[in-house]
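To the team - zinc ion complex, inputs and output below.
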Amino acid sequence: MTERPIDTLSGSILAGLSCRCPRCGRGKLFQGFLTLRPRCDACGLDYGFADSGDGPAVFIMFFAGFIVVGAALITEVEYHPPYWVHAMLWLPLILLVTLGPLRPMKGMVIALQYFHNAAEGRFGGTGAP
Ligand SMILES: [Zn+2]
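Output:
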């Protein structure tokens, strides 16, 4: 049985969304909720390159804001419910639409970093320190 690294963008995105190694798609990416493992337990890829920063959280804030604020505005305009109904509706929805996709989104951003060989910018050009 031969092992073949992921060589397509869609394969890399799928591996990231499933929180798997961006190179082999088999090893786990996380050891906690958002903490990365030091390396892939299947192919040995060092995850030291991975630095998603605030990227996944920003994407999710835009997504969650669109859904929750839109739903709250529509509900308020159509039904005028008391404030406690808003709290009962939107607080759980906020948790669902922010915490739910955070891990897969971080995995996808890391997979895209790996696929595009993204790294921190450097001044110079000779590569010498
Ligand atoms: Zn791997």
